[in-house]
Amino acid sequence: xxxxxxxxxxxxxxxxxxxxxxxxxxxxxxxxxxxxxxxxxxxxxxxxxxxxxxxxxxxxxxxxxxxxxxxxxxxxxxxxxxxxxxxxxxxxxxxxxxxxxxxxxxxxxxxxxxxxxxxxxxxxxxxxxxxxxxxxxxxxxxxxxxxxxxxxxxxxxxxxxxxxxxxxxxxxxxxxxxxxxxxxxxxxxxxxxxxxxxxxxxxxxxxxxxxxxxxxxxxxxxxxxxxxxxxxxxxxxxxxxxxxxxxxxxxxxxxxxxxxxxxxxxxxxxxxxxxxxxxxxxxxxxxxx
Length: 289
Fold this sequence. Notes:
single chain, alpha/beta, D-Maltodextrin-Binding Protein, domain 2, 2 domains, six-stranded mixed sheet, three-stranded antiparallel sheet, about 20% strand, signal, AvModA-like_subst-bd, metal-binding
């Protein structure tokens, strides 16, 4: 498989004939391998339907949906965005469902010769670290909280966000962190003994994986990307305990007025035993397992 990650965002599953009914899906980028597999499996059972996929950061897709982006189903890497769509009357009632629990990994280029674990990020060879932008990407938020949990970041008490240092992870106003991680966290443990250190931000977790692979040689990524051979062959990774970072409860929902039969059928297929098995094979923790 090529070492290539789509930066965006239109990926069309060419399933079915030209006159086939279409299900338009917008999704978090950690699904960029799993969703095409789900779409193919669904199409094999529904030859009159094709699934069109768009990948990006959960937060940016949410904003676009509130501004009129045409889509039928939205998959988010964090539950808050589908909940907000419900609250704003932009989702079909009763269709928000959990599909996975996100797992975070520290990924390192195999050529570094380092054991992938939190302390490895202090190594002088690690002068850049790829993370998703925590402003709008849930995996970026999880990355920051993981680094904080292992003492590699410490919240600044002089942050411009009121009471920021005392807020729990789930209450941090992430959308207001416009100054970059180091405007709000002290990264001294990551900088000590190095000629320099910088965070390199991907717009979504797929782009972050591309940055880690192509340039930074280190990144905090999603497990469903790390297990793919495009990353597992050139790199090594450590799976973080779920309690060590912001909990990523991942939900999907049908958008308001989009509950056509083919859309409902795909929505149900994702939660079926076959759909859940595909997600599990792709590196996701599925609800109830």
